[in-house]
């Protein structure tokens, strides 16, 4: 401890000696000290330089996969539309949830009024709001349900008679699934890498496009291109669930 104190004392003497020499040899520096200090204070009061907007690189946009980059450009231009089911259009064997966002194929027929809007030939139900312009999208949770068809239909679609097929020819633009097979509504098989748990439906009315995606990675499934001349409504058809864990299909909020 004594040696440490002696060392500290020695350093103090050395510092004092240096200060004395500075006073003798650097009078100009010492005389301008206040001016130097003032300039330093002014400089320290200046704000830090700001980064220019966009100076940092968004790595995901530059290095992400193609579908991600395309979706990044599209998502701000597409209106995510809340869709509710219209109970006045529901087939009598279909059961809708109280909040009108899910539907299942029931085990008994319901006594419902045969109003003009109601679908009476097939197990279908329409959305409550139609679209006649713009871009709109929504997602449907399908899980492992074995039989479903989702998409859009024209307002004047035949709701009472037989329709040869759920295809654009008859005013229905859809994606269909039956026991592991996906088709585009024209009977053409659509290949998917894995069974999607959700389906994103995307409408660009003005460009005449209805697109279907697996929203997990925004993987395209199929696209319909046509010329739309009347209001389009979300369209859902569902069969019996059988032993599947998913008994109903649900519009995601």
Automatic annotation (TrEMBL):
PROSITE patterns: B302_SPRY (PS50188). It comes from the Eukaryota. Residues 63-253 form the B30.2/SPRY domain. It holds the Pfam family SPRY. This is Nuclear factor 7, ovary-like.
């Amino acid at each position: 401890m004594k040696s440490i104190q002696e060392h500290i004392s020695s350093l103090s003497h050395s510092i004092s000696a240096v200060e004395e020499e500075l006073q003798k040899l650097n009078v100009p520096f010492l005389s301008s000290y206040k001016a130097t200090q003032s300039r330093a204070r002014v400089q320290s009061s200046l704000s830090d330089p700001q980064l220019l907007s966009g100076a940092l690189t968004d790595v995901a946009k530059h290095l992400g996969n193609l579908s991600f980059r395309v979706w990044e450009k599209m998502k701000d231009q597409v209106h995510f539309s809340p869709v509710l089911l219209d109970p006045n259009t529901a087939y009598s064997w279909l059961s809708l949830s109280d909040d009108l966002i899910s539907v299942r194929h029931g085990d008994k027929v319901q006594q419902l009024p045969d109003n003009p809007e109601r679908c009476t030939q097939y197990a279908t139900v329409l959305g409550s709001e139609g679209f006649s312009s713009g871009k709109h999208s929504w997602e449907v949770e399908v899980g492992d349900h074995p039989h479903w068809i989702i998409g859009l239909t024209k307002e004047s679609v035949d709701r009472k008679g037989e329709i040869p097929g759920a295809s654009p020819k008859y005013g229905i633009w859809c994606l269909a699934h039956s026991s592991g097979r996906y088709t585009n509504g024209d009977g053409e098989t659509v290949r998917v890498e894995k069974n999607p748990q959700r389906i994103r439906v995307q409408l660009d009315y003005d460009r005449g496009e209805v697109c279907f995606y697996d929203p997990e990675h925004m993987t395209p499934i199929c696209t319909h291109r046509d010329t739309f001349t009347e209001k389009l409504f979300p369209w859902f058809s569902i069969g019996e669930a059988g032993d599947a864990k998913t008994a109903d299909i649900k519009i995601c909020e």
